[in-house]
Amino acid sequence: MTAPVLPHLAGAVRALLLADATFAALAPGGVAPAAPAEVTVPYAVMLCSVTPINAAAGAYRGTVALNGCAARPVGSKQPLTAAWDIAARAAAVFACVRNTAYENVRYTARVTDGPIELRPDTSRGEATPVYGAQIRVELTLHAH
User: Which residues contact 67 (CB under 8 A, 6 or more apart)?
Assistant: First the structure.
């Protein structure tokens, strides 16, 4: 017997979050593994990893770090508030995930941290900081 193949975890996370209309409206820049070249609208950056618990049986533990990010005011909201709202909504979405299906996997989520304010990213220059807020999520996955 061979172990079930685990689908790309980021695909499951992206599909889950973008299916939520409120999250999609808060992060019109989408969800990606890296920041866009030019930051014009709020977006989310996601990093995923997976550790086998019992790969032969299809059991895995995934971790997700998701950062809500914004560089400009959004309406009357300051960038840090917009970033916080993205992370907080993502946490609310994950908090409702129980035995959810994606391709050949069923998964359950547990928010372990956040939202947490991040230090402004000034790598694009001091005049154009990107503000962020992060959540961390643990996923229990069963591939079949």
Answer: 44, 45, 46, 83, 87, 118, 132, 133, 134
